[in-house]
Amino acid sequence: MCGILAVLGCVDNSQATRSRIIKLSRRLRHRGPDWSGLHCYEDCYLAHERLAIIDPISGDQPLYSEDKTVVVTVNGEIYNHKALRESESLKSHKYHTGSDCEVLAHLYEEHGEEFINMLDGMFAFVLLDTKDKSYIAVRDPIGVIPLYIGWGVDGSVWFASEMKALSDDCEQFMAFPPGHIYSSKQGGLRRWYNPPWFSELVPSTPYDPLVLRDTFEKAVIKRLMTDVPFGVLLSGGLDSSLVASVAIRHLEKSDARQWGSKLHTFCIGLKGSPDLKAGKEVADYLGTRHHELHFTVQEGIDAIEEVIYHVETYDVTTIRASTPMFLMSRKIKSLGVKMVLSGEGSDEIFGGYLYFHKAPNKKELHEETCRKIKALYQYDCLRANKSTSAWGVEARVPFLDKEFLDVAMSIDPEWKMIRPDLGRIEKWVLRNAFDDEKNPYLPKHILYRQKEQFSDGVGYSWIDGLKDHANKHVSDAMLTNANFVFPDNTPLTKEAYYYRAIFEKFFPKSAARATVPGGPSVACSTAKAVEWDAAWKGNLDPSGRAALGVHVAAYEGDKAEDTRPEKLQKLAEKTAEAIV
């Protein structure tokens, strides 16, 4: 993971401007602590803070075409870079480095702005053509890699990996939309990523478990491309467990393993939390070198301000989940690991959140999954990227692979409907695809473990502790007057008010607060899905335990109040037996 900053069209191109851009780029150095680079061409500046993952020795940025007339600063990974280098149009080109991102400059030389669809990866980049001083900025399909765009009063256009690098110097700014390209030649933004599912029309492709499994395995394997130590974030839930299982199968039969005899896995939680127990069980089953990390509620609370500064949001569920991930990433980096695989995206694709139990029909379920995927860049992608990059660690997410998305989102959503009468729990299509009796990927009860949101799985007392802390710092009068203090996206709870006040301290401009979405939500639903159950309207909380009547440890008032680990284990085992 790297940090990029590009300023195009500065009126003042003096030494003072260069010094200012270096200073602003330094705000991104946590993302790329390994090296810094800056290219200046007249009134255009491309800066880069590098986290060296591929070709650590010679792959410093910015990167160039052969004659150095095309300059590019990139954050991300191009997984198909070798195939692109060997393609007919590029095989005659000469390369200066082994970086996977150098291919971008050469693709532009051959194909102009129309090469973006050829890329398979996660990326945000700015490319400058010095021959005519034109430029493009591009963000990957789903927004796995963050990017912001801003405009200065002098007419300059700014691009940065994080808001903090441009918010002080731009009059207006916003999150750069995923799947878009900004072209100085064509003027403004246009969408380059247009998959069939984006229209939200209900697909009809029959469910094929073997195709789904094969596509996901390919997505995991391509993300093992690295020249540095790596691992897997393993909470013990379905998604992270499948990532770890597929990764270790591939490593056992290939020569890709370079960092010891075992795959490293990592899990964090309060002592006795559901994730720690499940994570260890999966790690023991797979035979990984497992690192179980603990934190206390107070340690998490102490980190909140720093988390909000790095993650750049005041969204409640994002901050709840970002904090343990932020703490875990610090420990991971201390062990010398620079890249991890993670399980984000699965719940959005397959309707895995517990509120999907109340989806009235397949059309509404499919439309909700589309809405959730489109919004990932504001929530889970933002969390996974910025929580890890705060400590110079790169997170890769196989479930958001472009090909896997095409396959998974083309399945007739009737197969994704939760049907207890047919033994189908949430994400059944994924669970079933990896339910191999002869060569099991996972223990049966893990494969059919109920969905546990990361902020819940690290320990239920984590969220309860956050609420208690906010109640002590936000008075009833403060919340009553919240609509006057924060008229835009007004916080509705003391916890939300507490986060918002911290955010405003770091990012006081109206453009900054507009980058954070709002609206009612239950168990991570969109506002539209809240309409599925009238009971939810009085229980608006992003925790999975807000899914009354669904979660086995739902908030008090629901029938299922027993949250003892042994009770949860028995329920998981019963679910697995029922499926069998």
From TrEMBL:
<feature type="binding site">
    <location>
        <begin position="342"/>
        <end position="343"/>
    </location>
    <ligand>
        <name>ATP</name>
    </ligand>
</feature>
<dbReference type="InterPro" id="IPR001962">
    <property type="entry name" value="Asn_synthase"/>
</dbReference>
<dbReference type="GO" id="GO:0006529">
    <property type="term" value="P:asparagine biosynthetic process"/>
</dbReference>
<feature type="binding site">
    <location>
        <position position="233"/>
    </location>
    <ligand>
        <name>ATP</name>
    </ligand>
</feature>
<dbReference type="Pfam" id="PF13537">
    <property type="entry name" value="GATase_7"/>
</dbReference>
<feature type="binding site">
    <location>
        <position position="100"/>
    </location>
    <ligand>
        <name>L-glutamine</name>
    </ligand>
</feature>
<dbReference type="Pfam" id="PF00733">
    <property type="entry name" value="Asn_synthase"/>
</dbReference>
<dbReference type="InterPro" id="IPR029055">
    <property type="entry name" value="Ntn_hydrolases_N"/>
</dbReference>
<comment type="pathway">
    <text>Amino-acid biosynthesis; L-asparagine biosynthesis.</text>
</comment>
<keyword id="KW-0028">Amino-acid biosynthesis</keyword>
<dbReference type="InterPro" id="IPR006426">
    <property type="entry name" value="Asn_synth_AEB"/>
</dbReference>
<feature type="domain" description="Glutamine amidotransferase type-2">
    <location>
        <begin position="2"/>
        <end position="187"/>
    </location>
</feature>
<dbReference type="InterPro" id="IPR033738">
    <property type="entry name" value="AsnB_N"/>
</dbReference>
<keyword id="KW-0315">Glutamine amidotransferase</keyword>
<feature type="active site" description="For GATase activity">
    <location>
        <position position="2"/>
    </location>
</feature>
<dbReference type="GO" id="GO:0006950">
    <property type="term" value="P:response to stress"/>
</dbReference>
<keyword id="KW-0547">Nucleotide-binding</keyword>
<keyword id="KW-0061">Asparagine biosynthesis</keyword>
<keyword id="KW-0436">Ligase</keyword>
<feature type="site" description="Important for beta-aspartyl-AMP intermediate formation">
    <location>
        <position position="344"/>
    </location>
</feature>
<dbReference type="InterPro" id="IPR017932">
    <property type="entry name" value="GATase_2_dom"/>
</dbReference>
<dbReference type="InterPro" id="IPR014729">
    <property type="entry name" value="Rossmann-like_a/b/a_fold"/>
</dbReference>
<dbReference type="InterPro" id="IPR050795">
    <property type="entry name" value="Asn_Synthetase"/>
</dbReference>
<protein>
    <recommendedName>
        <fullName>Asparagine synthetase [glutamine-hydrolyzing]</fullName>
        <ecNumber>6.3.5.4</ecNumber>
    </recommendedName>
</protein>
<dbReference type="GO" id="GO:0004066">
    <property type="term" value="F:asparagine synthase (glutamine-hydrolyzing) activity"/>
</dbReference>
<dbReference type="GO" id="GO:0005524">
    <property type="term" value="F:ATP binding"/>
</dbReference>
<keyword id="KW-0067">ATP-binding</keyword>
<dbReference type="GO" id="GO:0005829">
    <property type="term" value="C:cytosol"/>
</dbReference>
<feature type="binding site">
    <location>
        <position position="268"/>
    </location>
    <ligand>
        <name>ATP</name>
    </ligand>
</feature>
